[in-house]
Design brief:
21% of the residues lie in helices and 33% in strands. By secondary structure, it is α+β, with helices and mostly antiparallel strands. The chain folds into 3 domains: 85 residues, 434 Repressor (Amino-terminal Domain) (Orthogonal Bundle); 83 residues, Immunoglobulin-like (Sandwich), CATH 2.60.40; 193 residues, Sandwich (Jelly Rolls).
Length: 435
């Protein structure tokens, strides 16, 4: 095994330790999660994009020393050299067996030596071409003076969506080939920046608790929180494809008869094409956060109405934490492979048996998600159907969301803290806010 292969195998080993069996089904959020796990142990930020590239072996030269050391730190080694020495052993020298001479002696030996000579010359030529390629190709500078970078941001409005964010940065003394600012975990939301300029204005189209990243080459050198709150429940639809743009659903009538929900008429009034495969988001992100992710209980009653014929209707209940997510996606029993959980690591229905999480999503169902001392539990109709360790490290819950490929309806939503005190409670008989 050479050093390049060791890098790839080490990253894949980290995936295995984090509960991922295959990279084929991993999303960008999964790679960002692995990057966060490495950062926790090493204190070194590596972008999720870099993690993805290393796992696929898509690199022609070794990563930067900081990246290698971060991988080594994950395995409790001080440096990459220490880690490499423990994993790589010098290749044994293999001595070729002696070849017997034929009956005509030296003539046969001379004939047999000609192909070897050709192969030898060909090998020299190939090595020369490779050497020339590496010698003459443009050199990528390593990153240095990272500590001299600065990165901050400010919203232009308190609760408006979309919301403009002004980033202030200084990279003038940082040595690298290229620089970017990335809005969040989504690498499609990445903008290039340049030395000599110190301001980038960007738009956030969705509420949430985002982590913006200052990137040099392909490494994250700074990260800051960007909280985009709302003062009300906020609704939007997105096409169920990558690189989407949200379509806002504007209405003042979303809590009637004790239910939070929308109607097909409201979608059509907002020019939403209900014939397309879309995800409908109900989100709430208050300005103030009062309960932490390591000790809470969320209780609700949900169902969905389909707006188009779907073989596998589903509802996702999501709690947004500071830089993390707690998520449960449920669907009907016959589509159990579409179910999923996100509790620090993602548990997928196509890799695990999550049939206990499924039910008829078109019927009213009681759902409870709780975490106590980092043990997460899922209750459906007052029956515990799942429990497992959640992620470590307490983060504030920054928002709530219900996401469905139909029109979701929510009844009796309550979020309580460790002492049982309700920090958000809404029966949706009238507009109530506060988290």
């Amino acid at each position: 095994m050479n050093e390049r292969v060791l890098v790839k195998h080490s990253v894949l080993e980290i995936f295995g330790k984090s509960g991922y069996g295959s990279t084929a089904q991993m999303t960008q959020r999964d790679f960002d999660y692995i990057a966060a796990e490495i950062e926790k142990k090493s204190g070194i930020l590596i972008s999720g994009t870099t993690i993805k590239r290393l796992a696929s072996g898509d690199f022609s030269k070794l990563p930067q020393v900081a990246t290698l050391n971060a991988i080594a730190n994950y395995f409790d080694y001080n440096t990459w050299q220490d880690f490499k020495a423990s994993r790589l052993k010098p290749d044994a020298t293999i001595k070729p067996a002696d070849e017997p001479l034929s009956s005509n002696g030296s003539t046969a030996a001379l004939k047999s030596s000609k192909p070897k000579l050709i192969y030898f010359i060909a090998g020299i030529l190939i090595l020369s071409v490779i050497a020339a390629f590496y010698f003459f190709k443009p050199k990528h500078h390593s990153i240095s003076n990272v500590e001299k970078a600065s990165f901050s941001c400010q919203r232009t409005s308190a609760n408006e969506i979309p919301n403009t964010v002004i980033f202030k940065y200084d990279i003038d003394e940082v040595k690298a080939d290229s620089f970017f600012i990335q809005q969040s975990w989504d690498n499609n939301r990445r903008k290039r920046i340049y030395k000599g300029k110190h301001t980038l204005t960007d738009i956030y189209y969705e509420p949430g608790y985002h982590i913006a990243k200052l990137i040099a080459n392909d490494s994250v050198i700074k990260a800051i929180d960007v909280h985009i709150p709302t003062d009300r429940w906020f609704f939007y639809a997105i096409d169920n494809i990558p690189n989407y743009i949200p379509e806002y659903i504007k209405t003042d009538e979303y809590d009637k008869n004790g239910v939070l929900g929308l109607s097909i008429q409201q979608l059509q009034k907002n020019n939403i094409d209900i014939t397309k495969d879309k995800l409908y988001h109900y989100t709430y992100f208050p300005s103030e956060m009062k309960v932490k992710s390591d000790n809470f209980r969320l209780r609700t009653r949900i169902r969905m109405n389909e707006v188009r014929n779907s073989l596998c209707p589903y509802i996702t209940v999501e709690l947004f934490c500071q830089g993390r997510f707690i998520l449960m996606r449920t669907t009907k029993n016959g589509c159990a492979n579409r179910a999923s959980l996100l509790l620090g690591q993602e548990i997928k229905g196509n890799e695990s048996d999550l049939t206990a999480l499924t039910f008829d999503v078109n019927q009213w169902t009681d759902v409870e998600i709780s975490v106590t001392n980092n043990i997460a539990r899922i209750m459906i109709n007052n029956k515990e159907v799942f429990s497992a360790a959640s992620f470590d490290g307490a983060r504030y819950i920054s928002g709530l969301a219900f996401i469905s490929n139909g029109i979701c309806e929510v009844d009796n939503l309550e979020l309580t803290g460790p002492d049982g005190t309700a920090v958000y409670k809404n029966e949706f008989n009238e507009k109530q806010n506060g988290l």
